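Retro notes, item 3 of 5
We never archived the inputs for the nicotinamide-adenine-dinucleotide complex last cycle. Fixing that now. Sequence and ligand:
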Amino acid sequence: MTERIATPGHSEPRTPRSPRGSERSCRGWSQEAALRMLLNGLDPEVAGPASQAVDWRSFAALVESLRDLENDETLLVLNGNPAGIFRTREAAPRVLISGENPAGNWSRIGVQENLLETFQTFASAGRKHFAGDLSGRLIVTGGMGKMGGAQPLAAAMNGAAILCIEVDPERIKQWMKAGFCDVMVNSLDEALRILKNAVRKKEPAAVGLAGNCADVVPELASRGVVPDLLTDQTRADDPLHGYIPSGLTPDRAAELRRRDPDEYRKRAMESIARHFEGMLALAKLGSIIFEYGNHICARASEAGVENACDFPDFSAAYLRPLFCEGRVPVRCIALSGEPEDIHRIDRVALDLFAENETLSRWIRLARRQLRFQGLPARALWLGFGDASRFGVAINDLVKAGELKAPIAIACDALGEKSDAVESWLPLSALLGAASGACFISFQSGGLRRVTQMVVADGTQPMATRIERVLANHSAAAIAHYAVSGCPEAIDFARRQGMKISVDESEGASGE
Ligand code: NAD
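Structure as it came back at the time:
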């Protein structure tokens, strides 16, 4: 039953930044966390240019509703606008969000999230192919854009030497400025001199080469320089607005795209074909190749490359095995705004999970090499049972007064395009509500994503909710893959004695 319908208010455009400190302006920490995360997600430091596209009327109305929200009420948010406030229960979620993109912005923490995923992808590839050690290994990739720019640092954090081929020198410079890339060079000779030296000494190195993949990748093959791992994050999926054809600078490419889009597309497809043929030649010479979500294999096939085999997809090859064992990423955000709160929980994670080498390496290096954006935060990839243990330990720290303010803990479930279990995401959102999440968002549209958040406020009821939400999030990842017939997940669920139903015939055929 609707208690009040929130009405939109007005606010002058200003630069959003989350409030900090231990004083709150809302009636409880769950509402306060939602408010701070909403503002944090719009902070230009976190959102980049997306912060320009704020609908200030909706924003003001949301802030007003959150400040108004009682501890036994739930605010519904639809497409970025408050839809109504309902009387529920204290242990119910305070905020439920559904709709297109804005819903996803509430728990953003900046580049760290993508860096962790890329770090974990390379670490898993290292475990699968190189006995868990990427030092002394050469990785080659293309594209240092919004997502791809994480590759140089993610590889170096794994101890590897990496060559990133990027056609736009400005992009390389941006990532160097952010500390993600060591050096920019203009010639392959210069790049290889640095990288061969690093490989020999088993030292990490991240080199950005200003060049086009369609030229450099075949050149590596003809010189017989064989990367241990080879992938690509150019926008090969978009041969008109993304991939830049060989022979053109980004400015000249933009000009041709405007003047003659058909010619642009033709040249881009020819370049993708050459790029891919270079990859095929390197595969023959022994490189391990995977596709990084950009559909380059399908594009190459369209471009007429014969035997344009499908290279394994990064997510299926390296991330899915983690999810099948209930290993999941979580993000911890210090609502106080104090970096020391994150450093304190980093130390707890290092103590609790000392045997997890990948995690320890990540925390040590992230702490040294990453600057916080917006509210200080740490993204972590935690093992089965570890996420809930960690969440409860954080709640204990808040209770003991060792942190300046509560910590928000967020986790996501993503929908895969090829997902056989289409309806899984709504179920995972509902499970989050049943388990006690403080905040749940269901993002529809292009990327489908469910985000759940719990707020470690130091109270005992919250400790139980944190434990349930994080344990069930991890178990739900296993269940998701088990019901899809993934043998690793079925096997793991059985070994853990989990109450998860699987299609026996499908399971048996997969085993
Ligand atoms: P982006 O457009 O921000 O960056 C692409 C970069 O590639 C640009 O810097 C561009 O200058 C460069 N580039 C284009 N053509 C080139 C060429 N021929 N040679 C060298 N450099 C070239 O894109 P993004 O957000 O970084 O994403 C890159 C691709 O990776 C996308 O296709 C994305 O879908 C994919 N990706 C997918 C996932 C996922 O599925 N979860 C994860 C990471 C990346």
